[in-house]
UniProtKB/TrEMBL annotation:
InterPro entries: MPN, RadC_JAB, UPF0758, UPF0758_CS
GO MF, one annotated term: metal ion binding
Name recorded for this polypeptide: DNA repair protein
Keyword match Metal-binding: yes
Pfam families reported for this sequence: RadC
Location of the MPN domain: 27-152
Keyword set, alphabetical order: Hydrolase, Metal-binding, Metalloprotease, Protease, Zinc
GO biological process: one example: proteolysis
Organism in which the protein naturally occurs: Sphingobacterium humi
Length: 152
């Protein structure tokens, strides 16, 4: 009888995106640069249609080493699996990361669910010794930084 167990190998793959400019991803050391980096990778056609959640991963010089769309949601919420978020950080050998999600409503005020999620992400990052730099909320016309507003 043949053993039917299959072990799955996890791999990180790198895909060069020629549409992205290096200037968006070097020394991302403030919320404005972070907003620009997230907008560069975001599907702009959906920013005011449905919520999505992205992460950008950094090295110790605050240069981007990768990004990943963590989840797509509905009109007013997105479910985030923190295990997936953190596993990508580990696979990318990042020392820091930032996250962002959008509010299709155009409202830049974080909800209580946004605040609770940020606390859970911060706790997970602390446990793994990977620094969370910011949580950005994007709308089609502006952004909110948890770091700038003292919420992180």
């Amino acid at each position: 009888m043949q053993n039917k167990f299959i072990a799955h190998e996890l791999r990180l793959s790198y895909h060069k995106n020629d549409k992205l400019s290096v200037s968006h991803f070097s020394s991302v050391n403030n919320s404005r640069k972070m907003e620009n980096a997230f907008r560069a990778v975001w599907n702009s056609n959906e920013i005011d249609i449905r919520e999505s959640f992205y992460a950008i991963y950094f090295n110790s010089k605050l240069d981007v080493v990768g990004y990943h769309k963590i989840a797509d949601g509905g009109l007013d919420m997105v479910m985030v699996d923190i295990r997936l978020l953190m596993s990508c950080a580990l696979l990318a050998n990042s020392t820091r990361f930032a996250v962002a999600h959008n509010h299709p409503s155009g409202n830049l005020i974080p909800s209580e669910a946004d605040r609770q999620l940020t606390k859970k992400i911060a706790a997970a990052s602390h446990l793994l010794d990977i620094q969370i730099l910011d949580h950005i909320i994007l709308t089609d016309i502006g952004y909110y930084s948890f770091r700038d507003n003292g919420d992180l």
